[in-house]
Design a protein that fits this description.
This protein has helices at about 35-45, 190-200, 270, and strands at about 1-10, 15, 55-60, 65, 70-85, 85-90, 95, 100-120, 120-125, 150, 175-180, 200-205, 210-215, 230, 235, 245, 255, 260-265, 280-285. The protein folds into two domains: about 1-165, no CATH class; about 175-285, Beta Barrel (Cyclophilin), CATH 2.40.100. The relative contact order is 0.19. It starts with a strand and ends with a strand. Strands 1, 2, 3, 4, 5, 6, 7, 8, 9 and 10 form a ten-stranded antiparallel sheet that branches. It has a seven-stranded mixed barrel with strand order 11-18-15-16-13-12-19. It has about 290 residues and is mainly beta. It is elongated and about 65 Å long. GO terms for molecular function: ATP binding; hydrolase activity. Keywords: ATP-binding, Hydrolase, Nucleotide-binding. Pfam families: CT_A_B (PF02626).
Length: about 290
């Protein structure tokens, strides 16, 4: 191993993630892993990394690190302001940091999550067959000021310079995502079912557990106790206030709120990259 980065500022929230921790939901451990799988996978392809390489997932910026060795990286995900020693840097293209360089991610313009991916990935301990951080169970390595991150000594390998703009995701102010009916879909009033797929909901905030939305209320036909159901990344729950919650990568594995739908797996990255006050439109898929 070799030292890669010393954390100067960890930003709003930064964690180490890979593709996730599978097979432990039955004991209450969520999959976790990256929130925007597309940006993660494309970044690893640019660097010719293994598909499950560990990266830094950074919410909204405010991140700064000092390079402790010469190494190659790529930044993917949200559009933002990136700098090496105050010289502007562009995302979706590989770049080199030399020992002593300062990497800064100041903030985002479109989207909300950045991925800093080193060639060969970050070296960290595997717990339950994954290196993803799940702080609620104290699993994984916490990113704090002063922490040193390590990587792997690599032989010279070829990598792609970057990804053409046509292949980069767009993070719009209003996004449309496909959804499937949930187990309690028919428990909602006909007007609410129609409202779900024909109205716009505003994202009001959230974290890796869940994103909260506000719009026209989604109402049950009758208020009654329901049996708790298994949940997953993309489950759409409706609490008593009638405003939907989309469960995210670190969400609980069982929930007691009615489940009106589930976001299509291929559209989860669009939800993950929402900025506060962006809007979402759900499009119901046919059975």
């Amino acid at each position: 191993m070799k030292p890669l980065l010393k954390i100067i500022r960890q930003g709003v929230y930064t964690s180490l993630q890979d593709s996730g921790r599978f097979g432990y939901r039955a004991i209450g451990i969520p999959v976790s892993g990256v929130m925007d799988r597309y940006s993660f996978e494309m970044g690893n392809k640019i660097l010719n990394n293994a598909p499950n390489t560990v990266c830094l997932e950074i919410f909204n910026g405010g991140f700064e690190a000092e390079a402790l060795s010469d190494h190659t990286y790529v930044i993917t995900g949200a559009d933002g302001d990136f700098f090496i020693n105050d010289v502007q840097l562009y995302g979706w293209k590989s770049f080199s940091l030399c020992k002593g360089d300062r990497l800064k991610i100041k903030g985002s313009h479109n989207g909300s999550i950045f991925y800093v991916i080193p060639q060969g990935g970050v070296a960290t301990e595997s717990i339950l067959q994954s290196r993803s951080t799940y702080p609620f169970a104290r699993i994984g390595e916490e990113i704090t000021q002063g922490r040193t991150l390590y990587g792997h000594e690599l032989e010279q390998t070829q990598f792609v310079r970057g990804l053409m703009p046509i292949h980069r995701p767009r993070f719009d102010y209003i996004v449309q995502v496909r959804i499937f009916k949930g187990p309690h879909f028919d428990h909602f009033t006909p007007a609410s079912r129609d409202r779900l797929s024909h109205s716009t909901f505003q994202y009001t905030g959230g974290n890796r557990m869940g994103y909260f939305f506000k719009g026209e209320k989604l109402n049950l036909i009758e208020n009654r106790e329901i049996i708790s159901e298994a949940t997953q990344f993309g489950t759409i729950q409706v609490p008593p206030n009638g405003n939907p919650i989309v469960l995210m990568a670190d969400a609980q594995t069982v929930g007691g709120y009615p489940i009106i739908g589930t976001v299509h797996e291929d559209d989860l990255f669009k939800v993950a990259q929402l900025r506060t006050f962006n809007k979402i439109q759900f499009r119901l898929m046919e059975d």
